[in-house]
Every structure is written in structure tokens, then in C-alpha cells.
Amino acid sequence: MSMQLLSVASEIYPLIKTGGLADVTGALPGALADHGMAVRTLAPGYPSLMSRLGRAKSVRRYDSLFGAPASVLAAKVGELDLLVLDAPEFFNREGGPYGDPTGTDWNDNWRRFAALSRVGADIAAEGVKGWRPQLVHAHDWQAAMTAAYMRFGPAHAVPKVVTIHNLAFQGRFGADVFAGLGLPPEAWGVDGVEYYGGIGYLKAGLVSADAITTVSPTYAEEIRSPAQGMGLDGLINGRADRLHGILNGVDTTIWDPTADGLIARHFSARSLAGRTANRRALEKHFGLDQDNAPLFIIVSRLTWQKGMDLVAQAIDHLVGLGGKLAVLGAGDHPLEGAFLAAADRHRGRVGAHIGYDEPLSHLMQAGGDAILIPSRFEPCGLTQLYALRYGCVPVVARAGGLADTVIDANEAAVGAGAATGVVFPPADPLALHGAIARTIRLHGDRAQWQAMQRAGMRADFSWSHSATRYAALFRSLVQGAA
Prior knowledge:
Blueprint: E1 3-8, H1 20-33, E2 37-44, H2 47-50, E3 57-65, E4 68-77, E5 80-86, H3 88-91, H4 109-126, E6 135-139, H5 140-151, E7 160-164, E8 172-173, E9 194-195, E10 198-200, H6 201-208, E11 211-214, H7 217-222, H8 233-238, E12 243-245, H9 275-286, E13 295-302, H10 308-320, E14 324-331, H11 333-345, E15 350-354, H12 358-367, E16 370-373, H13 383-389, E17 393-397, H14 400-405, H15 411-416, E18 422-424, H16 429-443, H17 446-458, H18 463-481
Parallel strand pairs: 1-2, 1-6, 2-5, 6-7, 7-11, 11-12, 13-14, 13-16, 14-15, 16-17, 17-18
Antiparallel strand pairs: 3-4, 4-5, 8-10, 9-10
Helix pairs in contact: 1-18, 4-5, 5-6, 9-12, 10-11, 10-16
């Protein structure tokens, strides 16, 4: 008999995605199935998701969920077993999951994601149509209140796990929303949902969870420090016995250079020749010179956290050393402008595509020589894992999951054939300059470069290892609650 789990998340690939959260919630259920665990995912009924449902069955209704009618629909999309919160007043909107088409957050996000969390707790307590979860797994601040609603409600005994995908995003709101949350008075306090005089959704989830996970071992240690704890390091240190760093994995059915339908030509670690066709297609897309100069790529949110300001300042240096750069991403408008200006300034050597484009991201990994990821902090990072799988050498800051997954091309690692990338100190412009120069030198030695590519491609970052750890944690919690 499979263990029954409920995952609560604001994004799930391939139905709705703004970042790595969706990749995790989309891939983990399949990986856990191999461990005898059946996952149903509760997600908001955004238009993009509702349009993919096909046949769906109503399994729960609300005449008034935070003042709006709503229902829970059960459906399957591919291998995903979904429970969808169909609440048009909250989720049937144009724009992204969290904000309007201009990128401005909606002012009722506190209510939208409290509704998602409340429904998760209700399902934990009462089930739907004869099905009830044995454990609830909530992801990031948008779902973290599920654990708080469970703790202060009838589902308090059901094991609850909260995963931090990025501690910088905490879901903080004013104290005035507490009256609308439907929580008992005792939930207000430092041991409840109160956070520096307001409400903290992620904080409420972390203090209520039976276990806390992060998406890499190094990040689990980093967030215990004041520098990386984002104001929650005291709480996290106080619950360190419940903290687990479990590295994210890659869905190898989607990211597979031997079978990827989104790239120009397939290739493998044994035969890298196909990468040339992908490189030429990539150069053509970005209007870059078709030559053999080292081609760096960026696939990222263009933000301070990702260190994109450092890259913008280093572009002239990169081009001056003979490199080229292709950029895919969106984010802070000044940074978008800086990359567009660089593309105009260095025509044929720099190209920029502002926006998000999943097919293009596959081609970039398949055709780029090296990917720049100079993050100031990085909970896990999936982009470098995709790069490793596609023979695109990661050039990364020594932070979080980047430090856990990339082996620096120092003399010993190169000599042992273990090097998979270039690692440098985070938030250091001179270190980034040095890393770019070192990457270009390494690229000049064809045999050495291909050895790095092959070492990265042969590394196993599939979900199998990570799912084993999640399964062991979930099983221990369920057995402990029995």
C-alpha cells in the first residue's frame, strides 16, 4: 500500500513555472513513486493550469473561502495527480502567479495564498472523496501557512514538512491581516504567525513544521548565519534538529541531450560532435559571429541575488579577452537595460533576449561552452545541473548548492579528471574577472576542456538520490506519528 502524501505548491512544471520551484514540485512526485509514495499536488487554478486540466471532478466545495466561492477539482495531467483550487476571484487573472502584467505584486496575495494553505489544511484534516494524506509537504512562503493552519486546527497530528526554496522570499504582511486569516487568537505571537510586529507566512510555517528542508546541504548551513538567515536564523538555529539539506535533482526525462526535441542535434558524453550544430543555431538566434571563440551563456533572473550586476560590469572584460556572451532572462529593469546596451555596444559578440523561453534555454545549454552563475546566494540552483548534463561548463560562485555540485578545475581536480567547472568567491568582481580569464584559458586546451565536459555529463544529479532522502524523512515522520 502506497504512502499517501499531499504536496501544496504555488507552481508545478509543466503547468505553471517562474523558476526552480516548479521543476521540483513537478519532478519529485514521480521520483517518490519509486519509493512507494503516492503524491497528490494541490495547486492554484491559474488560467494556464485550468486550460490544461481536461476532465476534472469537483471533490470539495466552499460557498465562501475568504469571501469567495471556490471548489477543489481532481484531475490528472500526464503523470501528475492534481487537486486544483478553482477560485476564480483569486487566481483567474492576467499576469504571473504573484503579480499583474507589469510585475507588480497583487495587494491581496496574503488572502490568495492563505486560501491555498487553508484548503491544504482542510484536506489534511478531512480528506477528499475517501482519500486523506498521511503527510503534508508545503513549498515556500506561498504554501507554508498550510503547516500553521494544521497546527492550530484539527489536522495538528498529521506530519507536516516545509521546504525552503529561497529564504529571501518570506511572505510578509501587516498585522492588520491577522483578523482575516481565520486563525485562533493563540496563533498570534512569537511562537505563531507574528513576525516583527506583522505576519510572516514562511516564518509561521517554519515554526509549525515537524521537519524543515532546504534544497542543498550547504544552504542549510548558510541560513543558520545572520548573513544568510534573512532574519530567521534564530528560529532556524532553534529548530536545527529538524533541519535537513536535501539537494534538488534533475528530471532526466526532460533534460536529456540524447533525446531532447528542443535542440538542433542530439549528442552524448561519448560523442560531443553534435554540440557544434547547437552552437551554430544559438549563434544565429542571438546574431553572434560564427567562430570558435569561447561562448558564455546566462539563463537567469536578472537580479542582484543572481550577481547579474557583476556580470554587466564584466562584459567588456569578457569580450576583451576574446569571449562571446548570450543572455536569456528578465528581472530588474536597469539590469535588463545594461545587457541590451552591451549587446548594442558589442554587436556580434554579445546578444540578449529579455524574457523567459523554455525551448531557448535548452538550446543555450546544448550550444554554450560555459554558463555564468555568479550568485551572491543560491539555495540550490538547477541551471548549473542542466549545464553539467549538457556539457556546458558551469562558472559559479562558491555558494549554496553551487558549491555542492560543481568541482573546481584546480590543478589536483584536473589531474584526477574530476573537475567539472570553475568556482570562485561570491560577490567579488575581481574574482569573477579571474574566473572568466581562467575559463577562457581552460577552453584553449581542447582535450582538457572535453574532459571537463564529459566529467560533468557523467555526474549523477538525477532525482534518485534526493528522493531516497525525502522518502526516508517522510517515512520516519509518518511512523513517528502513528
